[in-house]
Amino acid sequence: MTGIPMTMSDPLLVVIAGPTAVGKTALGIQIAQRLNTQIISADSRQFYREMKIGTAVPSQTELNIVPHHFIHQLSVHDTYNVSRFESEVIPLLESLFKDNPVILMVGGSGLYINAVCHGIDQLPDPDPEIRRELKQNLETLGIQALQDELRQADQEYYNMVDLANPARLIRALEVYRSTGVPYSALRSHTPKSRPFRILKIGIDLPREVLNKRINDRVDEMMKAGLEEEARRLYPLRHLNAMNTVGYKELFDYFGGLTSLEFAVEKIKTNSRRYAKRQLTWFRKDQEYQWFQPDDVEQVINSIQVS
Question: What count of other Cβ atoms lies within 10 Å of the Cβ of residue 59?
């Protein structure tokens, strides 16, 4: 299909964001075909090549239709964070814009999207999983463990914080763990300017429809072999990448803590909760224009007039 002409002097990054299972991948591919362009994935779990079924990566057919970047470029053994993502995406965009006046970024990892659009300049919202792990460390290892980790990660903040206040230690450490940037370095930053325009498209569905899509997707993943994939990864469950919905619930089953039926229902419940958190994140950003996943022409029109 013929691509829509764009002005080469005004490169545009089109963000297509939304909750899990809403239909971002299919919409992104349709838009990319119409624009004759490429897609940068902003789904932080689709980076890992060992996690295919449980992260709903685009199929090989879909990847063949439209060039994708940041899909399966890492191993679960690799250390990666949002700071590295920003530092890798920005020069890639500069290169891609030489041949494409518009590039798509598709995904549901809000922190990673914000890093590309505005830089690592705003303190991220608390990550429930990281916070839970830090609180567990506090309970089992004591406050000294948090103090030692903070001293290694952020000496500047370590020297000024009340070291007897576990809440402040946990906040600083969760920021560092999720971004790779010291807490002290983020507290006074201002948004970075970008040499391209940004259009933010949000994708959503009525709640009952989205919840059914999430439940159906989990059932499809199980039929596709998610249990077998998770079992292969079970020996690596201690890795940070493995702290992911769809895997950690099955790990509990493998460890004899739950039944398979309970684990599958837990995946569905946690996926719905994750979708709700994603929507809360994106809805706070007033720059998003909201559509449903079938609104292809409306999205195209919004790109043409931007």
Answer: 11
